[in-house]
Amino acid sequence: MLTSAKMRLTSEQVTKYDRDGFLVLESFAEKSACDRLRERAEQLVLEFDPAGLVSVFSTQEQSHLRDDYFLGSGDKIRFFFEEDAFLPDGNLKQSKERSINKIGHALHELDPVFSEFSKTTAIKQLVADLGIENPLLVQSMYIFKQPRIGGEVTCHQDSAFLYTDPIDIAGLWFALEDATTENGCLWAIPGGHKEGLKSRWRRDSDGRMGFEVFDPAPFPDERLVPLEVSQGTLIVLHGLLPHRSLANRSPKSRHAYTLHAVGGNSHYPEDNWLQRPAEMPFRGFD
After folding, report:
1. Exposed e or buried b per residue across 40-79, where buried means at least 16 C-beta atoms within 10 angstroms of its C-beta
2. 11: part of which helix (H) or strand (E)?
C-alpha cells in the first residue's frame, strides 16, 4: 500500500473526484500485495466444489432474479461462473479455474488475506478523505475477467444496486493485473455522476428482484472514456458514476478486486439486494 507520507488525498485530487466522479491513483498497492490476492483467489477456486452449485453471473439477462445462491451471498464467500463458460450440454468448456467470473461478496470479512488487504490504514484514510463518515464495508468481489470468455458488464451505476439515502458510497477498484482496452478495462462517463440515479434494483415483497426505472434514456456510449491502468492502480468510483467493462476476448486475464464503502450515517434499505443477517452486521475498518 501507499507509505504513510502519501496516504492523504490532496485538495486537487478531491476536486477532481468531485468533478469527474472517479479518481485514478497509480501504484496504490504494491506488486507483492496484488500477487498475494491473486494467489489466494486461485487457492479458493481450487478448493471450491461446484457440484450442484452452478450460478452464472450476467448483467445481460439479470439471471439472479430468483437465484438464492447469489441473493444470499452478502455474508458468504461464493463463486459465480462466466456466462460463456458452458457447453450446450451444461459441461464446462475448460477448467474450473478458467471458468469462474467472480468471487463474492464477503471476502473482506471472512477471508484473512482479503480482510488484511481491505482494512489497511491507507484505505481507511482514503475513504475518510472522500468525505464518507462512519464508513461501512458492505461488499467485496474478486473479478477474474477470464481470457477469451470474460463477460461484458453493461453500463451501470453502483448506487442502483447498493442504494443509500442520501447517496453516500464509493467503489474501490484495484487492478491486480494491467487493464487495457484489449482485456476489458473499465470505461466511465466523466461527470456522469452529476446527472442523477437512473434506476434501482429492488426486492419486492416476494423476494424477487426488479428494476425501478427513474430515467429510461440509455447511458450515452459516446461519452465513455477508457481507464487503462497498470497493476497496483486504484480507481475510485462515485456511486452515481456510469461505468462499464467490455468483454475480454484477448488471451490475457484482467484480475481486479473491488470494495464498496457506504456512509454509516445514511439509510441502507431492506429492499437492496445485498443484505446481512442480524448476527453479522456491516462493519467498518475496525
Report:
1. bbeebbeebeeeeeebbbbbeeeebeebeebbebbbebbb
2. helix 11-20
pTM: 0.93
Does residue 3 register a pLDDT over 50? no
Measured between alpha carbons, how far apart are the two ends of the chain, in Å? Answer: 18
Looking at the chain, which runs of residues are DSSP E strands? 22-25, 77-81, 100-105, 135-143, 153-156, 169-175, 186-188, 199-203, 209-213, 225-227, 234-238, 243-245, 256-263
Query: Alpha carbon of 184 to those of 33, 142, 227, 247, 251: distances in Å?
Result: 22, 15, 10, 6, 11
Q: How many residues does the chain have?
A: 286
Residues 35-81: pLDDT tens digits? 999 999 999 999 998 875 555 645 444 444 457 889 999 999 999 99
The number of angstroms, rounded, from the C-alpha of 179 to the middle of its chain's C-alpha atoms is: 15
Number of other residues whose CB lies within 10 A of the CB of residue 39: 11
**What's the pLDDT tens digit per position in 210-242?**
999 999 999 999 999 999 999 999 999 999 999
Q: In the CATH scheme, what is the homologous superfamily, with its name and number, of domain 4-263? A: q2cbj1_9rhob like domain (2.60.120.620)
Cβ neighbours, 10 Å, residue 236 = 23
